[in-house]
Amino acid sequence: MAKAKTTVYVDEDVLRSARVFAARKDLKDSEVIERALRQFLGMDLLERVSTHAAHVDPDEALILATEEVRAHRAGE
Length: 76
Known about the structure:
The protein is mainly α. 72% of the residues lie in helices and 0% in strands. Helix 1 (12-25) crosses helix 2.
């Protein structure tokens, strides 16, 4: 996957926390930020579902997707 360089403005406390987390987990700052964005956008779920899609019954997949949408909306 290609990476793009970008500049964003983030609250200093949020950035500091991300950097501390990255250091504790032996990750790059950008890895922590990308993981957080993927999770927030629901991309991590889509990747997990597509990996296991062949093994999931279509009805079960619909139930799981509905539950995730409801959980996401509740967290907004």
